[in-house]
Amino acid sequence: MKPSVPPSARVLVPQAPAVVAGLRAAAWVTPDGEVETLALPEAARRLGEGVAPLVCHAPETAQRLGTARFEALDLLELFAFVRPARFCLPTPRGLAEALDLPLPSTLEQAAATLLAATRALLAELAGADPTAAPIAWAMASGGWPWGGAVLAALGAGETPHSRGLANGLRVWLRLKEWTERPLEPPTGDWPVEPIEARARLVRLLGEAAEERPQQAEYASQVSAAFQPRDVAGEPHFVIAEAGTGVGKTLGYLAPASVWAEKNGSGVWISTFTRNLQRQLDAELDRVYPDPDRKAEKVVIRKGRENYFCLLNMDEAVARLPVHGAPGAVPLGLMARWALASRDGDMVGGDFPAWLAGLVGRNLTLDLTDTRGECIYSACPHYRKCFVERSIRRARRAEIVVANHALVMIQAALGGGEETAMPVRYVFDEGHHLFDAADAAFSAHLSGFETAELRRWLLGAEARGRSRSRGLRARVEDLLTDGADKAAEALDALLNAARALPAPGWRERMAGGNPVGPTEAFLARVRQQVLARDPDSRSPYGLEAHPRPPVPGLIEAARALDAALAAIRGPTAALIAALAGLLDDESDTLETASRSRIESVCRSLERRGVMALDGWRDMLAALSGETPPDFVDWLALDREGGREIDVGMHRHWIDPMRPFAAAVAEPAHGLLVTSASLRDGSGDAALDWAAADLRVGIRHVAAREHRAAIESPFDYPAQTRVLVVTDVERNSAEQVAAAYRELFLAAGGGGLGLFTAISRLREVHRRIGPALDAAGLGLLAQHVDAMDTGTLIDIFRAEENSCLLGTDAVRDGVDVPGRSLRLIVFDRMPWPRPTLLHRARKEAFGGADYDGMLARLRLKQAYGRLIRRATDRGVFVLLDRAMPSRFASAFPAGVVLQRLGLAEAIALTRTFLGSEEGAAGA
């Protein structure tokens, strides 16, 4: 029984200073409220004396102070414990918003906020659920700095026996089991008429909603994707471009929800970014306002590698020593989250992305099934597995929200873990389909991929305790008496797998000491790339044509082919033997064992047979010719000047061919939609041809439907597009000065886009102090110790901050309102001239292909600027070489102005009406 503790004893605030670091100075607030503003080196010196302060995001604080990680009481860790699976921006302002505290506007106020947040969170623990105390004891035993204060706030009583400290971390004991349900009946074929789509849209919007004719027209047009198919292999294929502000999400949810209800089956809605998945989840509240009904009818479906794995957690807890260890801290936070999580989704779900940066990936994100080692029904936690629960819910859901990669992989495997292939798809963010298919249907014979296959087959080989499970550990209990063929095939497979790269292969490769046929081949590949790439001293990736080969490459390829054949044979034999068990023991085999055998066979087919066949085809091409639909090349991948991978690569020249065969043709209807499918060349026929190329409709004998719904926004009045003509784009000093003055003129709300990480970092270094002095926050991808999604969340929430990023930011940001009012591109976004791009350029129209890609990137970036009818924004390109013909990438009526930097700064300040900009400048 929990002892009674007086309220005064429940809040034991640690006597520690609160520290917040800016770009130029740090605020230091003592426990009794004394405020100091310190130079960054002085703050770092004080921390070096052993002070453990209150901070918000310790890694980011250490980076700004220019010091190594230090012991701290991180408020984000406390928040994650007190409010698991709840959203909070990882900033003092974010904590204040989440806890309803006064919002800070200065560094000093931010530091004071940490003290107030500490008191608020500890006070909140008095009403915590009963699982909190056992978890807190385990974390305290691991040296958690918050341990004493949290236990006092919980009134946790006496210390548990040391053998019971880990009990609180065993979350699987407190989770409910899922239940198996009968298979769903076959899908119906009733159509959705345009009038039904409009009627459903009216209901979703509510009677008081303003009339939006573009949205109603869009809903009518896309309902064509929900007509019954008349001929096998000829789906209803709708391509619909909907300008920003049309409201396409509800526009397609209207007919999709009608079809699902009428036909008793699910519509799969596929996205590319996590941001849109979150937006869809929110919009679906309109379709299913009752939370319980929504939980039954809507599923967000992702690959296994996205979900928390209970077996990995179990094994991690088992590795903890009896008398506590630092690992108990992240595991405790994971336990708190897992018990509160909606569906166990750790990538884009309710898991706080910033938590892995605080306590490490090893005992947070790496607890997912990133290794592909699931043992399915042999797992003791199978009946509570988040993944299995999600799969079963998806089978009876009306709306399944997935991502492009999962949809394509499932389709390539004939349904994968689903019992049947979906017949209706909506591909939102359709402009990413080409790139998603390119990634899904490519092959890579590289050191990383071959070493991963060895690890998947053999398990951990390095010394030390590892949870990496080999194939034998995953399937041996299935090989009952009489399964001699399967056992022999398994032994042969594991023996042959030793020809693949063993741990330490990168070091051996760099040192010129390859071991085994795979490493010998990769060494020759590395030799050829270094010899042939004209810029072999570059810190970035290098490439080379595969032919003509350097001496020894063909011989090494033949030896590797023989080694791969020795793996492929027993892999196929093991699949056949396991499949034979399904027939031979059909009368006694339990359902769970049958399902597990089928899953193992699928994994062996995908990770073994399919991969090996692709690699062997690539090796054969070295002494012959690459098939005409593909392009092969050799590459040495580098990151920050360090070699991370080497190998041979094969991509489809047109990856929409396999997309069409695997996804589009088996479907009955599919909608591909986006705000930027057409590239804006100025020629309507060419624009639709570009869209057709990117979505693959030309490879399908489909019933084609096209729609283009213009945005309701007044872009000529709401935006300005400027090309600055007097900034030398190769001068880091001039480019940085342009970014600084433009951001100051806008008073923040600036998004800086770069085509190279090195230029981004240099600009950040140069402009940070000036923006900080003006009171403008500066965030940067590849600089700040936070993931990209978190940086975008902060940028969205803090109206006067600025963000520097690359393509991932351009494609993933959705920031309505004044938080994004200026976009600055450092130069024309021409495609990178890789060997793959060269092959596609030759196949898709030469220079016109380059122009199409550049226009699409400009169009997509510009489309981030205006998200509401009240938004205003300025788009600036710091590249005088931009051809005038690319003005067609912007909406009709928007005039592209060429002017000098001083004029651009003045226009930005005037157009945005920024008082902050005027003061800052």
Q: Could you please describe the fold and organization of this structure?
A:
- The protein is of the alpha/beta class.
- Helices cover 46% and strands 12% of the residues.
- The chain contains 37 helices and 23 strands.
- The chain has a 7-stranded parallel sheet with strand order 8-9-7-10-15-6-16, with helices on both faces. A 7-stranded parallel sheet has the order 19-20-18-21-22-17-23, with helices on both faces.
- It is globular.
- The N and C termini lie far apart (63 Å).
Number of strands: 23
Question: Which whole number gives the mean pLDDT?
Answer: 90
**Biggest sheet features:** 7 strands, parallel
Largest sheet, spatial ordering of strands: 8-9-7-10-15-6-16
Task: Provide the gyration radius in Å.
Answer: 29 Å
> Structural class of the helices, strands and pairings?
alpha/beta
Q: Residue share in helices?
A: 40-55%
Which shape, going by the Cα principal axes? globular
Strand content: 5-15%
Taking pLDDT < 50 over at least 5 consecutive residues as the criterion, the unreliable ranges are: 1-10, 914-921
Distance between the termini: 63 Å
Number of helices: 37
